[in-house]
Fold this sequence. Notes:
Helix content: over 70%
Order of helices and strands: HHHHEHHEEHH
Strand content: 5-15%
CATH superfamily of the largest domain: Winged helix-like DNA-binding domain superfamily/Winged helix DNA-binding domain
Largest sheet: 3 strands, antiparallel
CATH architecture of the largest domain: Orthogonal Bundle
Radius of gyration: 23 Å
Number of helices: 8
Number of strands: 3
Distance between the termini: 40 Å
Amino acid sequence: MIDILTDLLKMTKEFSETREDGTTEEFIEWISLSKKVQKHSKKVNNSSLIYELIQSQLLIKNETKELIKSLNLNSLDDYYYLKNIQKEKSIAKSMLINSFNHEIPTGTEIIKRLLKAGLLEEQSDKNDKRIKLVSLSSTALTLIGILDHQLQALFAQRLSALSEDEKAMLLMLLSKI
Length: 177
């Protein structure tokens, strides 16, 4: 009986080190999850793990692509460019392209597509007229808002099977890879 109490105290200490406060239900769930992880830790082989990671990534990528195309964007790159510009407010074309490690022709085509679609506005730099700056149009800001909301809903659906502790653990584990 003393061993059980000692183990319980150790688990309580470990649980309290992972969060500032927690309910009894969260503690019980945490213990359950810890036991499941211990049970499966001896059975995992790297090939199965890599396969599952790739399958999950492909599924989410394909669903994201479908969503992006439904809003008349050509690719994930279009979305990434818009998000980067949103963060910077206004950015030189060359800096934008370099931030994605794209070749100049590739990045230029993406920017041309976004300009043609009315999602970007272009102006010359005040200090150096050779430098062209791009910023988001009001249409792009609206589109990003819609897309961000729909992507959040998609990701919430994909992650709905996980508890908050499992999501935190997944994030921690993925950051180690």
